[in-house]
Write a structure and sequence with these properties.
Blueprint: H1 2-79, H2 81-119, H3 125-142, E1 159-165, E2 172-174, E3 187-192, E4 195-205, E5 210-217, E6 229-232
Antiparallel strand pairs: 1-2, 1-6, 2-5, 3-4, 3-6, 4-5
Helix pairs in contact: 2-3
């Protein structure tokens, strides 16, 4: 009678052990599943953190560029831009007036020299010939043989010309202003021989001239120069 009881006891013990083993496998699987979920959440968190850091770096870089731009140009453009523009225009006007005065002086001297050569005794024909050649070269340089006396060129809202570039502030002065209905904020495309150099925005306006702020150069090695054309951007 004891043998069957022992057999039943052993059978129950094995069943209990199997149940415990099954329970242990279930707990292990649960832990593995939770571990996988944690790893996935951690990976997603790292991905989100990396994206946030990239956006932050981009914002920091953009802010740095803006600060550098303002550090280089802001003081000139916002504190004393009137002085910069007026000085640039003044320099241009002085140079233009000096050139016109020089042309007038040389132009008035030419006929006097020719009359002297006609009446003077030519003791040295070769020297006289050399002087006459030089006089003709001066006349050609002054444009007296090809065109009348130059006039002051004025631009308009559709097309103006760069007259000077301030090396300190980078301000580009064109020969058209409020009289040509140009206003602050208008955009101009600067060209040379039909090639696009850069775009610009009007930062300061006076009656006959305007100051342009360069937005970006297509080629840093090709800079804006006096004589370049500024064409308004309508779109």
């Amino acid at each position: 009678m004891r043998f069957p009881s022992t057999k039943l006891f052993l059978t129950g013990l094995f069943a209990f052990g199997a149940a415990i083993a099954g329970a242990q496998e279930t707990i292990s699987e649960k832990l593995e599943r939770e571990n996988r979920q944690l790893k996935l959440q951690l990976a997603n968190l790292n991905k989100s953190l990396s994206a946030s850091l990239e956006r932050e770096d981009s914002k920091t870089k953009a802010l740095k560029e803006i600060r550098e731009y303002l550090a280089l140009r802001g003081r000139d453009l916002f504190e004393d831009r009137d002085t910069k523009l007026l000085n640039a225009v003044s320099d241009y006007q002085v140079a233009r007036e000096n050139l016109l005065q020089l042309e007038d002086s040389v132009g008035g001297l030419l006929p006097i020299i020719r009359n002297y050569l006609r009446t003077a005794v030519a003791s040295d024909p070769e020297f006289r010939k050399e002087v006459e050649v030089k006089l003709r070269e001066i006349e050609v340089d002054l444009g007296q043989r090809q065109q009348p006396k130059r006039k002051i060129e004025k631009g308009n809202i559709r097309e103006a010309r760069v007259v000077t570039v301030d090396s300190d502030s980078g301000l580009v002065v064109i020969n058209a202003g409020s009289d040509a209905e140009i206003g602050v904020g208008m955009r101009f495309r600067i060209e040379r021989s039909g090639a696009h150099i850069c775009d610009s925005s009007v930062g300061l306006v006076r009656a006959d001239v305007s100051g342009l702020l360069l937005l970006s150069l297509n080629n840093p090695e090709v800079t804006v120069q006096p004589g370049d054309l500024a064409k308004i951007i309508t779109q």
